[in-house]
C-alpha cells in the first residue's frame, strides 16, 4: 500500500478555495451589516437623536458627516493592519476586524442621546464611528487576499467576488432589519427602536468569530513564511516597487462614491420634504437592488475571468456615471416605479460590474509579500474620499438639498479617475498567481522568496 507524499509547504487542502470564499462572504456580510446600518441611521434617525432638531438641514449635514468620519479613519487603519497582515497573515486580521466592528457597533446602540448628555452624545458617536472605520480598513483587503491566494488561477475573479457579494449581502440584511424599525411610530423609533439593529451586532461578532477561526491561512502566505519571503517592512517594499499601482487603486476606489451617494445621500434626499417619498419604500429600493447585485457580482466577475478585468471594470465605472443621472432624476420625480427600476439598474446591475471585479483587479497588481498592504492602503484612501462624498453632496445640493443634477454631475466626475486607472493598468487575468506583481513601479520586484 503506497503512502501519500507529504504536502509541500503552502499546499492547499482540497475544497479550501470554496471554504475561503464562503468565509469571506459570510464574514463580509456580517461585518458590513454593522457598517451599513450606520448609513441608514445617519440618513433617517441620527439628525433627530444626536443633533440640533431646530435646524434640520444642518443636523442632516452633520449626521452625514459622521458617516464620512469612518472613511477618514480607514487609511490610518489600513497602514497598520496592512503591515500586520503582510507580516503575520491574513487570518489574524480577518478575526480582529470582525470583533472590533461588532463591539463598536454594539456600543453605538448603547449611546446616550443629545437630550440626555448634550454635545457629548455626538462626540461619543464619532469615536465609535472611528473604531468602525479602523475595522473596515482591514476587512476587505484581508478577505480579498485570502480568497485570491486560495483560488485556482483561472477563477480568481469569481472567487474573490464573494467578498463583495458578501458586502452586498450585509447591506441587504441591514436594510431588511431597518424596514420594521423605520415603520415604528416616531416616538418608539427615536427612543429605542433605532438601537435594536446595533445591538444585534453581538450575534455578528460571535458568529463571525467562529467561522473565521476555522479558516486556514493561505498557501501563498505559508509558502512565503516557510521560505523567508515575509518582508520585515511591507510598506517600504510597497513604496519602492508598487507605488504606481497603489495610485491606480486609489483612483479606482473612487468609484465607491456611487455606492455611498446611492445608499445614503439619495435616501436622505428621497425622504426629504422636497420629494416626500416614504422611508419604507426607499429602503425597499436598496433591498431589491442588493438582491440583484448578489447575482450580478459573480456573473460580472466570471466574465472578467474570460475577457479580462479592465473591460468589465470600465463598464461599471463609466456606466455608473451615466446611470446615477437617471436614478437621481427618477427620485426627483417622486415616481416609485421609475425609482425602483432605475435604482435596480444603476446599483444592482451597472455598478456591480466595477464592484464585482475590483477585488481581483486590485489584488492582482501586487505580489503576495505586499498584497494586503497594497490593497488596504490604496482602497481606503480612495474610500475616504467616497465616504465624504456624501457630505459634499449634501453641500452641493444647495440650502434646500434638492439640486440632484449637481450631485449627479459630482458623482460622474468621481467616476473619471477610475476610468483612467483601468485604462492605464496591466491586464492580469491570465497571469499565474505566483507571478503576480513581479514587475511593478517600472522595475523588477524582488522574488517572493527574498527577505527585505
Automatic annotation (TrEMBL):
Q: Which PROSITE patterns match?
A: MFS
Residue ranges of the TM segments: 61-81, 93-114, 120-137, 158-180, 192-211, 246-269, 281-300, 312-330, 336-362, 374-398, 404-425
Give the keywords, sorted.
Answer: Cell membrane, Membrane, Transmembrane, Transmembrane helix, Transport
Superkingdom assignment: Bacteria
UniProt keyword Protein biosynthesis present = no
Locate the Major facilitator superfamily (MFS) profile domain: which residues? 20-430
How this chain sits in the membrane, per its record, is:
Multi-pass membrane protein
Q: Name one Pfam family in it.
A: Sugar_tr
What is the name of this protein? MFS transporter
The top of its lineage is:
Bacteria, Bacillati, Actinomycetota, Actinomycetes, Kitasatosporales
